Amino acid sequence: MEAVPRMPMIWLDLKEAGEFAFNAAVKKSAVSVPRDFEGCSTLRKYLGQLHFLQSRIPMGAGQDAAVPVTWTEIFSGKAVTHEDIKYEQACVLYNLGALHSMLGAMDKRVSEEGMKVSCTHFQCAAGAFTYLRDHFPHSYSVDMSHQILSLNINLMLGQAQECLLEKSMLDNRKSFLVARISAQVVDYYKEACRALENSETASLLGKIQKDWKKLVQMKIYYFAAVAHLHMGKQAEEQQKFGERVIYFQSALDKLNEAIKLAKGQPETVQEALRFTMDVIGGKYNSAKKDNDFIYHEAVPALDTLQSVKGAPLVKALPVNPTDPAVTGPDIFAKLVPMAAHEASSLYSEEKAKLLRDVMAKIEAKNEVLDQFMDSMQLDPETVDNLDMYNHIPPVLMEKCAALSVRPDTVRNLVQSMQVLSGVFTDVEASLKEIQDLLEEDEAQERKLQELLGRVPPAPGSPPGLAEVSKECSKYVELHEKASFTNTELHRAMNLHLGNLRLLGGPLEQVRAALPTPTLSEDDKQVLQNLKRILAKVQEMRDQRMSLEQQLREMIQKDDITTSLVTTDRSEMKKLFEEQLRKYDQLKVYLEQNLAAQENVLKALTDANVKYAAVRKGLAEVEHKWNTTVQTLVASYEAYEDLMKKSQEGKDFYTDLEGKVAKLLERARATCQASQAQRQQLLER
Question: What domains can you pick out in the chain, each with its CATH number?
C-alpha cells in the first residue's frame, strides 16, 4: 500500500485585506505575502507586532484609539469592517492557517520529506485555527465562527494524520499501528463530517460544503478500509485465519462504499481506489480460498472483534504571538509600561486554568460516554429500522421494472434450455447407436474366429472401422465434458427461474416474498423506552456542548484591562478572585450535567438489556431481508449469462450433432462391409 496514489487535500483561501489606518508599507507586506514559507514567517511577525501594539494603545472595540479595520469574508466575498485591532489580528491569524493549509496541500507527498513537510503544515494550520477559536471573538465574520474554525481544525488534523499514515506505510510499520493511525484519520474526518452535515455550518459554507462533504465522506470509508486491511494483515501474522477473512471482507465492503461516494472525484482519487481495490481484493480472495480449502477456521462476526481504536499522533502546533524568535524585536517597547498588560496576561492565565480544569472533566466524561455508546452500537435513527420493510428497495424495483418491459424473459430462457436438451439427447442417442454398432461388430468378429478355429486368420476388418472407433471415443469424451457443463447450466437455471418469475410478477408478490419483523406490544414498548433514553443521551450531549460554548464565549469576552489599570498591584489577587466568581453558576450547571451521566447510562444499560432479544430478532430479519434482496438481484443479473451459455451450448451441440450424424453413417457402412467379409469367409 506504500505505493498507493495520494489522495487530494482540502486547502483554504486567504482573506483579502481592506482598510486599516496603519503604516501602508507594513500593511502591504503583511497582507500580500508570497505563497511560501517566507509568507508564513511574515504573517507571524506582523501578528506579533499587532499584539504588542494593542497591549499599549487602546485600539480595541469601543476604545478611544480604535480605527476601522476591513477584510473580505471568504464565503460571501463581502467586506466586513470592525473598529477593533483584534479583528486585524484574527484575520491575519486566519490567513496564517489558510496559507499553511495551502502549502500542505500543494506538495505531491511522493517523497518522505514531502510527507513530513505537508504533515507539519497541516499541524501548523490546525494550531493557527485553534488559537483563533480559543482567543478571539467568533462574531467578527462567518468564516471565523466557532463552527467553521472547529471544522477547519478537524480537517487539518485529519490531513496531518493522513500524511503520517502515508509515511507509516512507506516505513512498513507494524500492521496494528498502521491500523490505529488509519482509524484516527477516520475519527478526525468523522468529526469534520458531523460539522459539514450540520445545517447551520452548511449554510455558512455555501457551495463548497457539498464538495468538501463528498470528499470527506469518501475518505472516511476509504481509510476505514485501510484500517481493516491492516487489521487483517495483523490477523494473518498471528495466524488467525478466520479473523483475517472477516477483516479483509470488511475492508472490501468499506472500499466499495468509498468507490460509490467517489463519483465525480478527480482521476487521482480514482487511481488510488483502483490501486487499493487490487490490493484488498487480492488479499480477500486469497484469504477466503486458503481458509475454505486449508485452514477451515470459523469466520467470526465483525462486531465480536475488538474495535480499532485510533492513535492520534498529530496535534495542533501552538501559536505564540509574543515569541521573540518569531516576531523579532518589539517595535513598540518604549511606548508605555507593560504593567497593565502583564496583569491582564496573568488574569488570562487564570481564565485559561479555569477552562482547562472544566474541559478536563468534560473530556473525561465525554470519553466514557463515547466508549459506552460505541460498545452499545445504538443509533437512535436506525435502532429499529422498521421503515425499510414498508417499501421494496430501489435496487429491486429497478430489476422489476426492467423485467416488466421484457415479459418473455422466463419463457425465452425455458425454451432455450429445452432446445439445448433436445440437441443434447439427439447427440447422446447417435453416440449410443455408434457404440452399439461397434460392439456388435466386435462380437460377430469373435464368433467368426471361434468357428474357424485354426483356419488361417481372416483378412483384416475394413480399415475404416478403427478410425470410426477412435473418432467415436473422441466425441464421447467431448460429450461427457459438455454433459457436466449442461447439468450445471440446468441446475443454475432451476435455481434462478423461480426468482425471475417472482420479479416479473406483481409487486405485491415481491413485497410479500421479503421477510418482515413481527413485534409484540411488549417489544414495541421496549423500543419506545430505548428511544426515549437515547433522546435523553442526545439532550445531555447538546446541553453540555451549549454550556461549554457559553463558558468559552464568556471567557473570551471577559476583559478587565480597564479595572487593572486602576487597581493596586497588592489587590490584584483579590480582584482576580472576585472576577472569577462570575463563572460559578455556569460551572454548577456543568457539574450537574456531568453528574447526571451516570444515571442516564445506567438507565440505558437496563433498557439495552431488555432490547437485546428484540435487537437479535430484528437483526435476523434484516439479515434475511438483505439476503433475499441480494438473491433476487443475483437471479436477475444471472439471466443474461444463462442465455449466453445456453446459446453457446446449442451452438456446440448443433456442431457436434452434425459430426456425430456423419460418423453414424460411416459406422453403419463400415459395419455392413465388415459383416459382408465375414459372410464370404463362412461360405468358402
Answer: 200-314 (1.20.58)
